[in-house]
Amino acid sequence: MTEALTAHGLSVGHRTRTAWGRAVHRVVLADLRLTARPAELTVLLGPNGSGKSTLLRTLCGLLPPVAGTVRIAGADLAAQSPAALSRRLAVVLTDRTAPALLSARELVALGRHPHTGFLGRLRPADLAAVDRALRAVDAGHLAHRPATELSDGEWQRVLIARALAQEPRVILLDEPTAFLDAPSRAAVTVLLRELAHEHGLTVVASTHDVELALRLADVVWLADREGRLRTGAPEDLIHSGAVAAAFDTEHLAFDPGTASFALRRPSRGTASVDAPPPLRPLLERLLAREGLTVAPGPTDIHITAADDDTLLLSRKDGGTVRAPTFEDLARALRTDKEE
Ligand SMILES: Nc1ncnc2c1ncn2[C@@H]1O[C@H](COP(=O)(O)OP(=O)(O)OP(=O)(O)O)[C@@H](O)[C@H]1O
């Protein structure tokens, strides 16, 4: 069996109680058939409350399935001892609690627990695995820093290193890029892709960073608000309209052409633009924000990028305003609205 992580007939959810105190299962995602493959980065996407954490926690055994089975390399997760499971599967969750006074290296060394004996004594092979894990996430320089002093981005790398020190075949991560800035989000996602591609690991990570995931994931599992979960390459899900269906709202629309989100604003008029390529998309963004739809002329407003590096706003009624910056232009357009 080459598939590292599979789910068959899997329903996931939570045990709750009715108003009369009877225990019931609240199913979040039902009857799933999933495969996460080695050497692939699988990204779990979905709006708030669609069941990403519930699914990930079930896949790693923290929550029992409501129905169905989860297998790792063909072996039922439920039938494995915690020690055997932790040699195959590592989990990275979002919470930020570190045992006080541990250095980053000591924190990573906790990942060796499934491999050490009863006393938990680290042998040279264990220490080598810890250093390898720190190097793999480019965090060797953090080894001696107190874990509590790490920035969120550094912390995330160290947690991934702790998971790697377990030397698992499968890593599941719940929102590993939450709280990170854009460059760190990209760096961590690229790192996860490298761990899959270069080390042959099965990596499954959830995220809210849809655009980045659609660029870097090999496979996407997409949960929607109706309890469905679709799978495929990012392009399969963009092309089928599933991404737009899952995320489009009153204020935001997914554009399949650019695989990015655009603001949906009620249109209060039309505008045309005469500007060279670097300025044109910026002007179109600004106009969209101000509620103006770009159209071929004649339009209510015309913007020209003038030779003297200013922006010339011409109104249908003949009035013109010269704006030295985008800020001035936007303000002039808003003044129009107020008139
Ligand atoms: N302990 C719980 N008991 C009962 N219901 C729960 C519990 N935890 C989560 N839920 C419910 O399960 C559903 C899925 O929640 P989950 O946290 O899995 O979604 P998510 O996609 O991870 O959301 P987010 O993007 O907001 O983190 C939600 O309706 C949530 O209210």
TrEMBL record:
<dbReference type="InterPro" id="IPR003593">
    <property type="entry name" value="AAA+_ATPase"/>
</dbReference>
<dbReference type="InterPro" id="IPR027417">
    <property type="entry name" value="P-loop_NTPase"/>
</dbReference>
<keyword id="KW-0067">ATP-binding</keyword>
<dbReference type="InterPro" id="IPR003439">
    <property type="entry name" value="ABC_transporter-like_ATP-bd"/>
</dbReference>
<feature type="domain" description="ABC transporter">
    <location>
        <begin position="14"/>
        <end position="250"/>
    </location>
</feature>
<protein>
    <recommendedName>
        <fullName>ABC transporter domain-containing protein</fullName>
    </recommendedName>
</protein>
<keyword id="KW-1278">Translocase</keyword>
<dbReference type="Pfam" id="PF00005">
    <property type="entry name" value="ABC_tran"/>
</dbReference>
<keyword id="KW-0813">Transport</keyword>
<keyword id="KW-0547">Nucleotide-binding</keyword>
